[in-house]
Amino acid sequence: MRPYIREKKSFTFDEVPENTSFEAGYLTTVNSGWRSIRPVVNTQKCVGCEQCYLYCPDGVISVKDGKAAIDYDFCKGCGICAKICRIGAIEMEAERK
Amino acid sequence: MANKTAESISREEFFYGHKACAGCGGSLAVRAALKVLGPNAVSVLPAGCMSAVGFNFPQLCFSNNSIISTFAGTASMLTGVEAGLRARGIKEFTAVGFAGDGGTADIGIQALSGAIDRNDNIIYICYDNEAYMNTGIQKSGLTPFGAKTTTTPAGSNIHGNIRPKKNMFEIAAAHDIPYAATASVGYISDFIQKVQKASQIQGTKYIHVIAPCPTGWGVAPDETVDIAKEVVDCGLWYLAEYENGEFRLNHKPKEFTSVEAYLKKQGRFKHLTDDDIRIITASRDKKWEYIGKNFAL
After folding, report:
1. Where are the beta strands (DSSP E) in B129-256?
2. Is the per-residue pLDDT at B263 higher than 60?
3. What is the nearest CA distance from A96 to chain B, expressed in angstroms?
4. Which residues of B touch A (CB under 8 A)?
5. What is the CATH number of the domain that holds B176?
6. Which of B5, B6, B23 is facing A78, going by the closest CB pair?
7. Nearest C-alpha of chain A: how many angstroms from B121?
8. How many Å apart are CA A67 and CA B6, to the nearest integer?
9. What domains can you pick out in chain A, each with its CATH number?
10. What phi, psi does A69 have (nearest 5°)?
11. Number of folded domains in chain B?
12. What ipTM is given for this predicted complex?
């Protein structure tokens, strides 16, 4: 399990919990709008060494079928994965609207 | 291709969707440590970057139990969390604190010292980005010599911070703590192994991890990991452990890379003169002479 996006509700002040917040891992907004460049995995080259998975500060890289897969909802486009990849299987591409 | 380190930690994410800057070293340290400790970790975070980016109501980016403490009280709240859960008969948990360099070496040092003195069964992780980054880059006790911050500006007379970095690792070790270690997010397997080791030890554990801040250090977001590696390779930081009353060096660079190259990559050191760099290099050599005499390999 990882924190995941929930339906966004609006709150009045009375409804704000006094003590703890909601259950853990309660996300309401994505981070994809922060990005100007996005990492793209070349699945032909990727050998699944998982270095990008280990070094991603946001934890958006997982390994599916032996290849790196990126959750673009939460990737901020920092580029650490592209730089850490020794075989050049990740490239940063401009984000297009 | 199997990756041993990746196999040794949880596949789940416990710090996800947070609002840290792109390429944040601190968030990488928190993420990696929580993946070691698993869902039963109870994390305590004082005022600082990681609490600012992790708890934006109603967004909660931790999927383990997590709480914000007072700035000075990370370690004392850890004491309380540990004692409270133990009193309720809960056995499977790890109380872990993540405090920045200011929250550890300046504001929280008294609470930390007290917790080590009581030998409470907690893990305290200091993610060291070498200044108060959350409030806009002010000098902390762990800001290195020569670094430019908003409270130690670089002018023609004084070139940034005039004081050396406080030696928090050896301060923690001087309490005769069961386990203390230094690490860097640039050597993530080493850091993960140290958190794993700490989770097996009874008593207070202190891990000091260098976590570069692209915003405050003046480097590109994709350079976080490289610069965290380079600070170890050029000898300005070292990977070591303290256990059973003995210091041990985990990684000895065969030959140091250039201190000047490391410094000049960063906006906060751009203003340094050749004389300043000589002072920094000399202090590095002196430190390594000390390490050579007092640390086992």
Report:
1. 179-184, 205-210, 240-243, 246-249
2. yes
3. 19
4. 1, 3, 5-6, 11-25, 27-28, 31-32, 55, 57-66, 185, 188-189, 214, 220-226
5. 3.40.50.970
6. B23
7. 24
8. 14
9. 4-94 (3.30.70.20)
10. -130, 140
11. 1
12. 0.93
